[in-house]
Protein: Flavin prenyltransferase UbiX
Organism: Anaerostipes hadrus
Amino acid sequence: MKKRLIIGATGASGIPILIQCLKLVQEQKDFESYLVMTDSAKLTLEHETKMKVEEVEKLADHVLDSREIGAGPASGSFQTEGMLIVPCSMKTIAGIHSGYADNLILRAADVTIKEQRPLVLAARETPLSAIHLRNLQELAMIPNVRIIPPMMTFYHMPESIEEMMYHIAAKLLEPFGIEAKEYRRWSGL
């Protein structure tokens, strides 16, 4: 049986990073992805890329509707390696923080936390308000929750935006044991 990874996408900027994450998971023979996109994520996709929603969905092994609150990932008995939300809006951060599980992404995140599985949040917003920072700080104190904002890095000497996105996607997937082929780690000076 393949390892299951839930990948949620919400209405913040960063859909191209979602696409890169899906491509990297596709390269893994022992993983399968379960994609859940909110309506806001689909709207953002149309604004940030030239791809159609259907094209992005084809990059996933399984696609679930965000309103499908009774789908497998809504239950702890649905075994997964964890969940990645990329991009993760501050609205979603607030929902996870408060336990307000009114869609499949929020419910799956709630289940991931209660089952103590890895939950990686590619939190997107700038500037951050005191409310955002409080929610992020309290989530970061929960075991297995990682806040990994998609920040640019330069130590790996990227030559394009695509290389930066690849590096960010590789960092987001690393907590699940996924090793991207072209990922260049910091090796010291």
In short: Helices lie at 15-26, 39-48, 53-57, 90-98, 104-114, 130-140, 161-173. The chain has one domain: 3-176. The chain has a mean pLDDT of 96. The longest helix spans residues 161-173.
